[in-house]
Amino acid sequence: MNEDPIRLVTIGRMFRRRRRLLTVLTLVGALAGYGTSVLFPPRYTASASVLLPGQWEQRELLTQVEIATSSAVIDRTAAVLGWKGVGGAELRDRVSAKAADGNIITISGTAESPERSQQLADRVAQQLVAFAERIAGRGTDSEETTGPEVLRQQVEETNRRITDLAEAADPGQTVESVQARTALEKLRTTLAEAMKKLDEADPATNKAGLVVMGPATRPTGQAPPTRTQLIGAGALLFLLLSVIGHLTAARMNRRLRTEPEIATALGSAPLGSVDVPAERPAHRPQGRDPRAWIRRLLDLDTRWDVPTPRTSGDEDSRRIRYQRVCARLKDRAPGTRRLLVVVPDGDDIARRAAARLVTEAGNDPSPASPGGEHPVLRVVEVPVSRPLLPDRDTESGALVVLSAGSWTAAELAGIAGACADGGYEVVGSVVAGAVRTARPARPADRPADKAPALAAHGHATGESE
């Protein structure tokens, strides 16, 4: 597992090297959001306001909100609307209410068209007002008359009877008649006071009736989530999942990066590292395999988690690295005339480094040195999935050349096993890394057309050393 911390430069490198893949996945997410919007038809929401005059406490407002979304109001609304296939249970999921400032209850209705959403909000508001009037005893239905109203009617009838009794009493000034009229007036006063206390105790009489503050406004736009929001959410979701997937894969990367780890996996001694100038592939093989074509199109055959190549020195410094590797190889296998250079198939950096090693070994400047001349190298590319080397001929050993951060320990162990199976002893390993070459500075007093000739002359001089 790679323990390197994830930095912003890593994410930026991912977007730069995998921009085609990330773009395609983002478009796929947008198409998924569009498909979701097709499956779920658009919805429209309209709102109607109901005013509650008088003094209302917060808990009383919350009670009215619950009443607005109760089955007593919603079922009556469904009966009044008469929409086919839509009952109270379906409308209950489409209606919501909330208490706003100023004793106002906002009722919202959601439907598949602006006209239906406006109609639903208006009907729910009207049914809420009608239900509140029935509770307060101001309804028009005779069977819905409440107990306090019946009591008031009986008190009025009693007052009329008292008046009749007072008029039928002896109009004289006898003591009995005066006492009778006084008792009747006391009874009338007592009844009036009782009704007054009853009215004060009834909360429905202390507040005026609910009022609908005009019809609901017909909506002009869809209720969220809209089609545009679903498309954007799908694209963003797929992009985030792609980034997380890339970072997780990089975090779980088990490819070996350092020379000691690579040498341990191969069971050989490290002979050093060499630099290969980074360059774009000139021509990629145009195979007929559609999977290979898709990988090239989406840049899947390009490693994104490899750091940007560092800047290398001049050509002489790179040649010195190759010569040192050849010298160590000569010391490691003295008297060996031929070696097989094993390169993993598909490792372009290692292939170029191996070709440079063959060139440097063939240009041994001192064949008469005490250690002898460099061994003759022959490059062989082996597939990592099923490595297989040719039978041993004149080569007495194998030199493995590979790039850092490209292969796992199991893959390198397979290459080492293929070497042992072919009868080759792994005499060492060389790690190749891509570098950026620094452009030579052009002298200000030199003509531009002579610069290439001078550069070529310097390169030739270096090779003659």
TrEMBL record:
Signal sequence region: none
Q: How does the record say this protein sits in the membrane?
A: Multi-pass membrane protein
- List, for all copies, the residue spans of the domain called Polysaccharide chain length determinant N-terminal: 6-58
Give the UniProt keywords, A-Z.
Cell membrane, Membrane, Transmembrane, Transmembrane helix
Spell out where the chain crosses the membrane.
230-249
Q: Where in the cell is it found?
A: Cell membrane
Spell out the Basic and acidic residues composition-biased ranges. Answer: 277-290
The record, for Pfam families, names:
Wzz
InterPro entries associated with the record: Bact_polysacc_biosynth/exp, LPS_length_determ_N
Keyword flag Transmembrane helix: yes
* Claim: Transmembrane is one of the keywords in the record: yes
Q: Where is the composition biased (Low complexity)?
A: 450-459
Q: Write out the ranges of the annotated region (Disordered).
A: 271-290, 438-465
Annotated family: Belongs to the CpsC/CapA family.
Protein name per its UniProtKB record? Polysaccharide biosynthesis protein
Name the species this protein comes from.
Answer: Streptomyces yaizuensis
